Amino acid sequence: MESTEAATGSSAEPDTADSTVAADADENGGNGNGNGRRIRKGERSRMRILDAAARLLSCRGYAATTLTDIAGAAEMQAGSLYYHFDSKDAIVEEVLSVGIDHARAAIDAALEALGPEARGSDRLAEAIVAYVNCIVAESNFTVANIRCFNESPPQTRESLAVPLREFTNLWVGLLAEGQADGSLRADTNAKVLARIMISGLNSLASWYRPGGELRLEDLARQFADMVLDGLHPAD
After folding, report:
1. Out of 5, 54, 155, 212, which could bridge 141 as a Cys pair, Cβ 3.0 to 4.6 Å?
2. Residue 149 in 3-state DSSP?
3. CATH assignment at residue 180
4. Is residue 195 part of a domain?
5. Residue 41: which domain range?
6. Helix axes 140-148, 88-114, angle to 10 degrees
7. Alpha-carbon separation of residue 221 from 84, 95, 124, 192 (angstroms)
8. What confidence score (pLDDT) does residue 43 get?
9. Count: domains in the chain
10. Is residue 209 a part of any domain in this protein?
C-alpha cells in the first residue's frame, strides 16, 4: 500500500458452483429458475477478470496492462469484459481496492491470533510479518496496489484515499499502542514512523524474489527485528 495521506489471488474457479446451483434448485421446488446458475457464472467470470488483472498489474504495472491483455489472461473475449466493468480503470480500481482488503485481512488475522493481551511491540512485529507474507506470497492484488497506485488515474487515487489512509492509521495505532505500554520507545513520531515502515515494506514487491538465499519467513522476521531493535525503549 502507499504510505501517502491515503496507503491482492488464485485464478482457479470455485469447486462449489454445482452445489450453489443445486441449492438454488432446491429452493425452487427442485427445478430451479436458472438465475442461480447465471448469477454464479457472472460472479465467477468477474473474479476471473480481477484475478487476471491483478496478475498482470502486479508484474507489468498500469500503463503496460491493456484490456486486451486482461481478457487474454482471463481467457475471455475483450468485449465480454464490458459486461462486468465499464472500463480498464474500473477494473484497476477494484483490483487495488481488493489489495487493501487483503492486506488488512492478513494483519487483522495475525493480531487476532496473537490475542488482545499481547504487548504493543509483539503486535507490531506480527503485523509486519503478516504484511510481508501478504506482499510476497499471498496476494497479487496487494502487489498491484503497491505498484500501480501512483500510476493510476486521479479519480482512482481519490476513490481509494480513505481506505489507504485507514491502512496507514492501522500502523500508527500499533506504534502508539507500543509507546503507551512501554514496549516501544515513546520519543518518536508514530505517524512518521508508520509511513517509513510502509514504504520499506512496500519495496519488497520490487526486489524480493522467492526461491533465493533468503527464505520468506527469515526475511519477515528480520524486518520485524530491525524495526523493534530501533524502537526498543532506552534502559
Report:
1. 54
2. coil
3. 1.10.357.10
4. yes
5. 17-230
6. 120
7. 41, 28, 12, 22
8. 86
9. 1
10. yes
Exposure string for 67-94, b = 16+ CB within 10 A, e = fewer: bebbbebbebeeeebeebbeebeebbbb
Contacts of 49 (CB under 8 A, 6+ apart): 70, 74, 76, 81, 84, 85, 91
Q: Check: CB of residue 167 under 8 Å from CB of residue 4.
A: no
What is the rounded CA–CA span in Å between residue 1 and residue 101? 10
Report yes or no: 24 and 36 within 8 Å, Cβ to Cβ.
yes
pLDDT of 160 reads 97
Residue 10 covered by a domain: no
Residue reference for cell 473474479: 47
In this structure, is residue 12 part of a structural domain?
no
> What is the DSSP code (8-state) at residue 184?
S
Query: Which pLDDT does position 7 carry in this prediction?
Result: 39
Query: Which has the closest alpha carbon to 57: 18, 82, 88, 35?
Result: 88
Q: How far apart are the first and last CA of the chain?
A: 34
Q: How many CB atoms lie within 10 A of CB 19?
A: 11
Cell of 56: 498482470
For 47-65, how does the pLDDT look when each residue is reduced to its tens digit (9 = 90+)? 999 999 999 999 999 999 9
User: What's the full length of the chain, in residues?
Assistant: 235
- Hey, what's the torsion of the CAs at 161, 100, 36, 78, to 10 degrees? 80
